[in-house]
Structure formats: structure tokens, C-alpha cells
Amino acid sequence: MNINKNLLREKIFYFVLLSYVAFLPFSEALVSIAAGMLLLQAIVLKSWKHPSVLKGNFLTLIKISSIFVVYLIGTTLTKDISFAFYELRKVVFWIIIPVSFFISPRLTFNRFLNVLTFFCLAVFVASIIATIKLVFKEYFLITGFRDITMVSHIRYSFQIVLSIIIAIYFLVSGGNKLQFIHNKTVIVFFLIWMTSFLVILKSITGLFAFFGTAFILLILLITRLKNIKTKIILGFLLILFVLSPIYYVNKVWNDFYNLEKLSPQKTEKFTPLGNPYFFDFLSLEKENGHWVKAYICETEIRNGWNKLSEIKYDSIDANGYAISNTLIRYLTSKGLRKDDSGVSKLSERDVKAIENGIANYIYVDKSFSIYPRIYETIWEFDRYIETGNPNFQSFSQRIEYIKASFQLIKKNFWFGFGTGNWKIKYDEIYQEMNSKLLPENRGPSHNQYLNYFVKFGFLGFIYIFSMLIIPVFREGHKKNLIFWLFLVSMAIANFGDANFETHMGLSFFCFFYCFFLWNTPKEIRAFRF
Fold first, then answer.
1. 3 state SS for 86-131
2. 3-state class percentages of the chain: helix first, strand second, coil last, to nearest 5
3. pTM of the model
4. What is the maximal distance between C-alpha atoms in the chain?
5. Sign of the alpha-carbon torsion through 162, 164, 165, 170
6. Of 52, 82, 91, 292, which one is least surrounded by beta carbons within 10 A?
7. What is the mean pLDDT of the chain?
């Protein structure tokens, strides 16, 4: 009877894990349900004593779960108790998932690999669905790459990075017992596709995590492999990994800042139809190396546009901005003059893009490339430097958030401001900074390290990350490469966003942290390339 109970308990735990990883790329709500199921099966079936449940290491569980206690202690400083409870609800995964894993059975080697396999398949299916939505974006009414995924595109990018790490393990270790996963051709295809899709997804944070993790992996390989030829090849690959992004970003930068020269004495003053051009030689606004406030004949572009589109020149586009501004920027991006002749060169596709609020043709012609995302960041930085206005610009707003975070850290370095206070404290500091950020755009730093520093000070910051790193060593994962690469990828990703304070970011991290911590088989803990 006990044997049957043991088998049933293992199966229930195993299928809940499969459900959890299957939901991760698709639904925040389903992940919450899966987390509840994980805790429920652990508590309800705890009385079915199982030989594989650890008897010791309870202190490890206390360490991890104490991160939630830090938030709880932080509420003693709060001035907004309702918001403090909201924050506590967001980070309750620090309790739910570690407890669930700790009192559940340990997986067999094959089931461990099957959970990883199922996760990779779920991530792959989600990427196919997202690609279909991107290709047929007009049908799905999608206006930006951020809308193609079913969960946050940033959080999904971390799932892609982990799936790539897992696939590399399968490739070099001989893979899973499942025959199609054991096929190296399938794994190589998966790696190529998921790496390509990560570029298509355009998550800068995800790409940084990918390149940073790959960089660390290549260094490890170079130091550990003995074959000189292989070391040389990997060395060239490492250099390529460093130089390629730098070269590509530099190319986009030069395309943006390689400006046409305008001289008030030498510019043409009239359009081919004989109407005067308008120039603002003091304006520094630019698109693709062309000046926005140059060669404008508003009468001609108004008449020309109104013949092409039902959304008139003096109306607004799909993003809520004036069609006139979007049209002028779009024409500039194509190197066209803002007159009747320029408007007549717009294709039907261009017209639709302008109506949808797209102000540069590269967002249409290079939608599958990372080029537009880098360009957008450079454009936002340029506008921020020139105007000091960061509003409605992701990169520029992040700069303001970081500035405000450092100011707050200076005010309370050791202990921080506690749980639930960030809205109040950031509003105060933005006022002190005379920031141009509108109230609705104000927020905390998109950086997990700065967020912890602001909330819990230096002492809380050190404590939280100590409670995450110490268990890795105490549980015997010093050589668990797949676990360490996962941790490295998230450590890098946390520079670009406060992932541990978002539902999908924390539920993803907590799950795989505990999964690797308590279920990684001995064969993988000491795996060597």
C-alpha cells in the first residue's frame, strides 16, 4: 500500500510540474493556478511519507523563505499599508514555491529531464504562435513587437535563454531518453530557431542576458578544455561575441547621426510646385540622418495626405499622436521632402503604417530585425539629451528612474525605505529633482539591485542575495553548470528590470531555482563538458 502511495504521490507532483512549465510562456493566471496546485499537492499529500523527501536541510528552506520575511519586516516602515500588502502578494512566491518543493518527493533522473524537455517544447510552441502573430500582425491588430507574446515579452525572453541553456546541455550530454530530443539535428535546429527568435523578440534585456551568459560559458570552456585547436576556435568565437554587437550598434548609431548638411544659403527655397519650404535650422530633431524640420511645405503634404487616407492630416494616429507629426517624421526617415512629391511616393503599406502611428519606415521594413529596437533606443536617448523630456520613452524614463534611485539610496543607505513606500518616496525625489516626468510615468528603477537597495538598504540587499547564493553551495551545486548558467542569466537580466518584483519574473525564477536546487540529479550536479 505504501509503495502505491509513493508512486501516486510522485506522479501527482510530476504532472503538476509539467503543467507549471507548460503554462509559463502562455498565461500569468494559469501559472498562479499551477503554483496553487503545487502547494496544495505538497500539503495534502505530506502525510503520505515518501522516502525521497529530504529529512534535513530545513535551514535551506528557512533561508530562501526569509526573503519574504524581509518584505514583511519592511512593512513596519510603510506609510501606505494597502500598497504594502499589494507588494506582499506579488512576492508570496518566495514562500509558496520553496515550501512546495521542499516537502514534495524528489524526481527521478528521467522525470527531471522530461520536465526540462516539456518546458523547452512549451517555449518553442509559444515562439511559433508569436511569429505567426507577427507575420499576420494586421489580422491580429498588432502594432508592436511587445504584443506578440502572451506574457511579458521581457519575461518570456528569459524563458528562451533558459531553454537555450537546456538545449546546449542536451546537445553535449547526449540528451534525453526521448528519441526525438536525443536527435542532435533537432536540438541544433531548436538552438538556431530560439536564438533567432530572441532577436525577433527585440527584448534588449533578454539579449543582454543571452550574450552575457554565452560570454561566461565560452570563458569556462576555454579554461577547461585541453584541446588547443578547440580553444583557438572558441577564442575567435568569444571575440566575435564581443565585437559583433558593438559593431552592429555602432552601425545603427552612425546611420542615425550621419546627418545631411543644411545651409540656409544653399538650400532650395521652393517646392517643384512653386510653394515655399519651411526650415527650422535650430531644431535638432532627426530621423535616419535627415533633419525633421527641413523641406516642409505643410499645404502640399496636407492636401496630398488627405487624398491618400481617410484619417485626415489634422487628426490623430492609432497611438494618439498627431498624424501630421507622424507623417513628417516618416517622410524624413525615407529621405523624402515634405511636399506633394514626397507624399506621392508613399506606398499603401506606408500609409497604413503612418495611420497606425509608426513614424519611421524601418519599423515596417525591418520588423524581423533587432535594428529598429536599437534605433528606437538611440532616438529616445537623443531626444532626452536635446529636450530633457523623458516621457513616453522607455529608455529615457529608465534613465530618470535610475537617477531617482541613486538619490534615494543616498538618503537611507543602510536600511532603505521599507515595503510599500516606493510610490511616495519616488514622487518626493522626482519633485526635488525637478524631473519632467509626468505623474503617470513615474516609477521605481527597472533594476532589481537598485530596487532592493531603495527598499531595504545595503543590509537588506546583502541579506537577500546571500540567502540565494549560500544554499547553492550548501546543497552541493558548486559544479552544477546548468544551474549556474541559469543564475548568471538572471543576474544579468536583473540589471535591466526588477524581475523579482513581477508576477512572471518571480514565479519563473523561484520555480527553476527550487527545481534545480532540490531535484537536480547527481549526474548533472557534477556534469563536465
1. HHHHHCCHHHHHHHHHHCCCCCCHHHHHHHHHHHHHHHHHHHHHHH
2. 65, 0, 30
3. 0.92
4. 96
5. positive
6. 82
7. 92
